[in-house]
Write a structure and sequence with these properties.
Elements (H helix, E strand, L loop, with lengths): L1 H6 L20 H11 L8 E2 L12 E6 L8 E8 L12 E5 L3 E4 L7 E10 L2 E2 L6 E4 L6 E2 L5 E2 L4 E2 L2 E2 L14
Antiparallel strand pairs: 1-2, 2-5, 3-4, 3-6, 6-7, 6-8, 9-12, 10-11
InterPro entries: E3_ligase_FN3/SPRY, FN3_dom, FN3_sf, Ig-like_fold
Pfam families: fn3
Protein name: FSD2 protein
Length: about 180
């Protein structure tokens, strides 16, 4: 009987068209929920280290920081500006660098000058709050010895020099 049934031509056309309701389903909330599950959170604020000994020259500073969480970080944004005692210090030039590591050496700075640094971490989800600000200072320029004013005798010597720095120097070390 099966063989006979399969030999027959069957007309599968429907006599009436089905009446389906055209419905638009809003899945934006579900999409948002799914994206939030797969998304990584924005990182926490990094912690900037205080200036380390021997981390400065007359024209450069090495700044270090850390991230004390398991956050995913793509890069860091290091900002700095010279510290000024003037009232309009906010108007001074602020510099921003993108850095992959947790340290950076900044060059072309002024000797014996204080700089304020802060850092933020970035990933695909956004930017962290900035770290606390840390003040670093470059080393003073070497003084210039005034050769015409040098005097000496058997038991003493008088050596005069002048600083080439704009800011006052705390002390000098004279080596013989």
């Amino acid at each position: 009987r099966l063989e006979e049934f399969l030999k027959k031509e069957v007309d599968l056309e429907l006599s009436t068209l089905p009446d389906f309701e055209e419905r638009v389903i809003d899945v934006s909330e579900v999409e948002q929920l799914m994206n939030s599950i797969n998304a990584i959170p924005a990182p926490c604020a990094p912690v900037i280290n205080p200036q380390a000994p021997n981390a400065a020259t007359g024209t450069s500073l090495r700044v270090c920081w850390g991230l004390f969480s398991d956050d995913t970080v793509e890069c860091y944004q290091l900002c700095y500006k010279p510290v000024s005692n003037e009232r309009h210090s906010d108007e001074q030039a602020e510099h921003t660098l993108r850095v992959k590591e947790t340290y950076c050496t900044i060059t072309d700075l002024l000797p014996n000058t204080q700089y304020e640094f802060w850092v933020s971490a970035l990933n695909a989800s956004g930017i962290s709050p900035p770290s606390e600000r840390a003040v670093y200072v470059t080393a003073p320029s070497p003084p210039t010895i005034k050769n015409k004013k040098i005097r000496s005798c058997e038991n003493a010597a008088l050596v005069c020099w002048e600083s080439r720095d704009i800011n006052p120097v705390d002390s000098y070390t004279v080596e013989l």
